[in-house]
Amino acid sequence: MSTPAPISVETLHTRVQSIFQSCGLTPQNARAVTDVIVAGERDHCKSHGIYRIEGCLRVIKAGMVKPDAIPELHDSGKAVIEVDAHAGFSNPAFFAAKDTLVARAKETGIAALVIRDCLHFSALWHDVEALAEEGLAALSMCPSYASVAPTGGTEPLLGTNPFAFGWPRPGPHPYVFDFATSVAARGEIELHRRAGTPIPEGWAIDRDGKPTTDPDAALAGAMLPFGGHKGSAISTMVELLAGALLGEFMSKEALEFSGGTHLLPRHGALILALDPATFSARSGRDPLAEGERLLTAIAGQGARLPSQRRFKARVSSLRDGIFLSEAELAQLDRFEAEGLAAL
Asked: Which PANTHER family does this one have (predicted)?
């Protein structure tokens, strides 16, 4: 059996965007959602690539997201900027407010973006990478739906609660990390389930609170935080800062609102942008140069910096195209031909 030919990043973007527009997204919303999905595939982050299309279409079909929502910016001129997604996807809301966030951070030194009532499905590195490219340090976080048991507990209470950080660098790529506060992203367990392979030990517990390597039992039970009590505390911080602080859903509420983990969650998100030049102005030192000393020293020891693998994959994909399996290409064909009826 021959291996399917690679598809260019541009062609994949065109195909995915056409799928979303045919399912009711405005061109602007479809482009923003497609940007992050294709970026995941381009950077070899399969759990956040075209695998995510089906989940997005399911919430559209279930009426749990407004595909044609228009993000509404609320800017009082202070450090905190708000954008109401109006039950739409989070990505169009972020991009609708990004330029205002950047300008405010450079004006005041620090600014926060609150995204309200959004549906989240993607990684967070897109946000912090975009801000780092503007010369800003950035933090991004959001709750999810309750699928993770706190350390020492047995029932889901926390979300996978991702946390991302970006730092500007003089080279072509910033320093970026993005991770779930669970041992693994839920999408990784779902990919194991689809492949019929066991998950590693320590990822999850079953309904009875017992350790399991069965992805089905894990999805029916609870995932675990990374790093024991430390990951559990960081996950709790995300719940408080990106949920309680904003007056938006926390993970347990998001689960109840969605009626289960079969649909993507609705909640809020918090993004912080910091201007290095403002913070270091009176020090007489260059913060980016100081950062480079540390980062180059880490790399000089042979350690891999976060996202290096992703950036390397990006170069390869832009040059050689993206390799999709026959099943993935067939699914794209089906979504293009049938839209929501394919579900």
From this structure: MALATE DEHYDROGENASE, OXIDOREDUCTASE-RELATED
Same domain, 292 and 312: no
Q: How far is CA 149 from CA 70, 204, 306, in A?
A: 35, 9, 26
Q: Work out whether strand 204-205 and strand 222-223 pair parallel, antiparallel, or are unpaired.
A: antiparallel
pLDDT exceeds 90 at position 184: no
48 is an active site residue: yes
Domains identified in the chain, total number: 2
Distance CA 208, CA 165 (A): 35
Inter-axis angle of helices 27-42 and 90-108, nearest 10: 80
67-120: per-residue pLDDT in tens?
999 999 999 999 999 999 999 999 999 999 999 999 999 999 999 999 999 999
Residues 23-79: pLDDT tens digits?
999 999 999 999 999 999 999 999 899 999 999 999 999 999 999 999 999 999 999
Shared-domain flag, residues 40 and 166: no
Tell me if residue 76 is catalytic: no
For the CA atoms of 252, 242, 227, 194, the dihedral, rounded to the nearest 10 degrees, stands at 60
Q: What is the DSSP letter of 339?
A: G
Q: Which helix (H) or strand (E) holds 34?
A: helix 27-42
Active-site option among 41, 129, 188, 239 = 188
> Can 47 be counted among the known catalytic residues?
yes
Which residues constitute the domain of residue 88? 71-182+225-305
Catalytic residue among 18, 22, 44, 47: 47
> Which of 48, 120, 126, 192 is flagged as catalytic?
48
Partners of 266 in the β-ladder: 119
